[in-house]
Design a protein that fits this description.
Elements lengths: L2 E6 L5 E7 L5 E5 L8 E2 L10 E5 L8 E7 L17 E6 L2 E2 L2 E2 L33
Bound molecules: zinc ion (ZN).
Length: about 130
Amino acid sequence: MGFPVSYYCPHCGAVVELERDGYLADKSVTPYPLEGWAYADPADEFEDADGVHFVCGESEASRVSWTELVSDADDVENPGLDSPCGRDFYLSFVKFENGREVESVPETDYVVIGGQGPASPRGPNPGPRGPGGF
Ligand SMILES: [Zn+2]
């Protein structure tokens, strides 16, 4: 059966306990959804989803308990914020496709994977700035 795992809100640090199946592996907790991940409410059967969408302090489910604790971790965005803050945050599970872990694409750091697509050779290109315009 499930067992409780603690997470904290990346906005304010409010600590929440979620009871879930042990076979799921956590990837990250983020203030925004990862691209390509489908999130479920903690009241739903989130084991079938790619992650869980929390509303800080407001998500209610038998498997969720909001503790009185506030994490003082360095990556809490607004440690001075009223806690719980009522904002959204997302717990993402590790996803596998064809036996390989699926990487998320960070919005601000889009990586182009080399070796994909045809290389376009740059041939002689009669540009608009050729010699002898006038
Ligand atoms: Zn919060």
